[in-house]
Amino acid sequence: EVQLVESGGGLVQPGGSLRLSCAASGFTFSSYSMNWVRQAPGKGLEWVSYISSSSSTIYYADSVKGRFTISRDNAKNSLYLQMNSLRDEDTAVYYCARDPTLARFDYWGQGTLVTVSS
Amino acid sequence: QSVLTQPPSASGTPGQRVTISCSGSSSNIGSNTVNWYQQLPGTAPKLLIYSNNQRPSGVPDRFSGSKSGTSASLAISGLQSEDEADYYCAAWDDSLNAPMWVFGGGTKLTVL
What we know:
The complex is a heterodimer. Chain A is an all-beta fold. Chain A contains no helices and 11 strands. Chain A has strands spanning 3-7, 10-12, 18-25, 33-39, 45-51, 58-60, 68-73, 78-83, 92-99, 107-108, 112-116. In chain A, strands 2, 4, 5, 6, 9, 10 and 11 form a 7-stranded mixed beta sheet that branches. Chain B contains no helices and 9 strands. The relative contact order of chain B is 0.33.
C-alpha cells in the first residue's frame, strides 16, 4: 500500500525557517517524481514544487522561488522541503504527492500544517 | 487568481447529472492532459480522473471527464450524497519562463 506521511509542520515567526519531510513507503520511491502542494485555510490547492526521480529536474512556483528548496534522499525514501524567509501567506497545509513524471498526483499524504505568525 | 477557471459552486439533487467546467489556455489544457481531484471535507485530495478521461482503480464509472481545445469538463451522473466535496482540475503548464502545475480554483459541489 502506497503511504506518504508528512511531518515537520508547526508555528514559526515571519522570516523564520522550517523543514518539512515526507516519508514514502509501499512503492519504489526512486522511480517516481514528487511534488509539494499546499492549501491555505479555506482556500484552493496551490502547487509549490516538483522534483524528478533522480533530482535532475526541479521546478518551483514563482511564489516560493528563491525561498524554498525541494530535495530528496532516495536511499531514505524521503522527500524534503526547506522553507526559508517564511511569510504570513505561506500559512497552509502542505501535502506531498507522488507524480509518475509530470503526469498526475496519484497519491497524496495527509498533510502537515505550517502556520506563520508572530 | 487561479490559472484555470472553474465555477465556484455547483449543485444537484440525488440521482441527477452535474457537470463542472474547467477553462485554461494553449499552454496548459490546450497542450497537456487534464486531471481532476476530489477533496472530501477535512481530508487530503484524491485523484479522480487523469489523462482527461481515465479513472483510477476504485473510482466509480459515475465519474467521467472530457477535454476539448482549452477546456475540460467533469461529469457526475447518478449524484449521491457522498459526492458532496470540492473538485479541482489541474494541468501542466508549458510556459517557457516558468513551467508549472496549475490548478483551478475549485468547485464546491452541494447535493441538495
